[in-house]
Amino acid sequence: MARFPGVQACGHWRPTERAIRLESHRNPGLELVSIATGGRRWQVGGVVEEVPPGSLFFTLPWQDHGSAEPWEPGSDLSWIVLQLAGGEADWRFHPDLGLHTTPAEDQRLRQVFSIPRHSHPAGPLVPRLLPEVVDGIGGLDSASGTASPLLVRGLITALVAAAAAAVSAGSAQASGDPNQLRVRQWIAAITADPTHDDSLEAMAAACGLGRTRFAELVQTATGDSPIRYRNRQRIAKARRMLSASSRDIITIAIACGFSSSQYFARVFRSFTGMEPSAWRDRRSSHLG
Fold first, then answer.
1. Domain 7-176 superfamily per CATH
2. CATH class of the region 178-287
3. Model pTM?
4. Residues of 225-252 as b/e, b for ≥16 C-beta within 10 angstroms?
């Protein structure tokens, strides 16, 4: 990957890439991650957050963060680390990036990125801009690349503005709408225990909503329908159990809320592309 002034690191991570351990770490700048597919459970300072598809995730240089799972499978995401100047209380983007922000804009950006939640709906622009920035920086080293430093600098400026808008909008939505608050409480409850087998009607009623509105709010918050989000959390639990125990597949399926090993295997394949037994064997080979 080509070097670009003010960019500490950037890249793509694809679904076909080998699973890795993502230990707790810090980055040397503001990290922005756009998740296209493959939801994540990441922690910042020990606080676990759900990072569903369609999310923007950010961290600052002094924030320890990493995966809440033993292994991180490949997924479709792009990331960049932007260099900062100053300290924790007065940071701003490094002049090398060429953003030319005013002191008032710097203060506003510090306020936006100081909120405690790090995972937000990415909105329409971030998922387009961040991969373009990464590809543009990579294209600077390529004879066939069409990017120029001026174009990349403009894309980075647009990306920072779009990311700040997405974080600000996500924070406002989460705090200002009681329906969204109830849905986020439901998401937190399902994340903690996805084994409940309530119907869509029952899940919606528990939030005081109709089926359609409930499904819309869950889709906005997680990128999934309610049933798919519950299945995603069940499969995440199954992956942890497959990694940490030698219990047979049907026992794990039932413990995760599935009524049969056949249904469990079908849902597991839809999220991982593998049979549960093959996934367990692969994890064992990594650990070996």
1. Regulatory protein AraC (2.60.120.280)
2. mainly alpha
3. 0.64
4. ebebbbbbbbbbbbbbbbbeeeeebeeb
